[in-house]
Structures are given as structure tokens and as C-alpha cells.
Design a protein that fits this description.
The structure is a single chain. This protein has a single domain, classed as Serine Threonine Protein Phosphatase 5, Tetratricopeptide repeat, CATH 1.25.40. By secondary structure, it is mainly alpha-helical.
Length: 124
Amino acid sequence: MVGCSWAAERSDIRFQAAFDNRRTSRLRSMPASSINGWESAGLDGSLPGQDDAERSFGAALSIAREQGTKGFELRAATSLARLWRDQGKGAEAHALLAPVYGWFTEGFDTADLNDAKALLAELA
């Protein structure tokens, strides 16, 4: 069981690193008053960094898939789908997120699944 805990921790660290890679350079140069949440940090088209964000979310998604961590895959897919939605790529966002969300058979009261469900409804 110790190996499983370490693998989960390593997966969490890699996933967080992908997000931090995207956030760090943008957040350092932004005044605190302009940051209402992590999504407002360069993902609405008003700031540079969307290519970096897309690469980071893609890397997080790949790592989650390689490691078979469906929860992290859902988070990365939801984040990438939001970015694509904001870029006007709604069909691609839906096509990415729907199969990941569809994999789950329980836990629908969790924040991650609720977020994904709301985004899918918006993209439909």
C-alpha cells in the first residue's frame, strides 16, 4: 500500500506542476486585484499565455492518462475544455470532456464532477 500512496502523491505533484508552470509567470506580473480565481489568469483572451496553458493542461492530461488517474484526468480535461471554450472551440472542448466524464459511475456529488457536468451542459 505504501507504493500506491507514493504513486498518488507523485501524480498529484506532477499535475500541480503543470498548473504551476502555466500560472507562475502570469500571476507574478499581475496585481492581486485583477485575479479573481485561477481561470482569470490569462485564459480569457485578454492576457498572453494561452499557448503555455494549453501545453500545460495537455501535459497534465497525458500524465494522468499514463498513470491511470481518472480524477486528475478529469481535472485536466475540464481545465483544457474551459480554455478551448474561451477560445471558441466549444465542439472540441465537448469532445474532449464528454468521454472522460462518461467514465465515472459514482461520485457525482464531488466538486470535480459537478464542474465537469456544468461545463458539458454549457457546451451542449
